[in-house]
Amino acid sequence: MTDTLKNALVTGAGVGMGAAISRRLAEEGMSVGVLDINADTAATVAQAINSTGGRAMPVVADVADRDQVAQAVATIRESLGPISVLVNNAGVENFTAFTEIDDVNWDRIMAVNLKGAYLVTQTVLPDMLKQGWGRIINISSFGAQIGAANMVHYSASKGGIIAMTRSLAQELGPSGITVNSIAPGFIDTPMARRAIAGNKLPPVDQMVRSYPIPRMGRPEEVAAACAYFASEDAGYVTAQLLGVNGGTAV
What we know:
Blueprint: E1 7-11, H1 16-27, E2 31-36, H2 39-51, E3 55-60, H3 66-80, E4 85-88, H4 103-131, E5 134-139, H5 143-146, H6 152-172, E6 177-184, H7 190-197, H8 204-208, H9 219-229, E7 241-244
């Protein structure tokens, strides 16, 4: 697909890493479907891309709802064309002691973070299979690798993303589709800032003091990793997990 315009879909694209990923893929020459549950933030990101000469359209969906996902994907196909690059970034977090997690809390985390990736991937996959080319990039978390107190449900959902990535890579490789995962560390996003402000995490300086690169990561650095996995240069790279985490030991 070197000479063909690629159309990307990014979920959870209204803020933070999703917004940065959308902008970066647009800079790489892709048309971008900016999917978010919040219509206003999705529209803001798409408008910013369009205003700088890119091509993007906002779509609204709860990724845990198959019907909403199908409608959003159909809208993107109609306006931009078949989807060849997917970034499953949508996610929600929650800080609750394991003994206090209830079924509603557990199920919502799993529905958005893990089932959402399954639903969106399954919905866009026919486009990639028909083209014989595709890039699926799943955003996991450093917490899935080392664990996180009071985030058992979140870490479990992100661990599932890693396992799903590796299994999908084996299944889809013969069809010309690569599947990779990125595990961000402590990235400066609204989600991270909310957790810090709510005293759910230690102060920033304390968190990053032991990192080889002693600072928070930037959403644009995660976006750069996505751009590589989405590129022609990564055509022989699949089933991989890339940590964007400042060198923190796993």
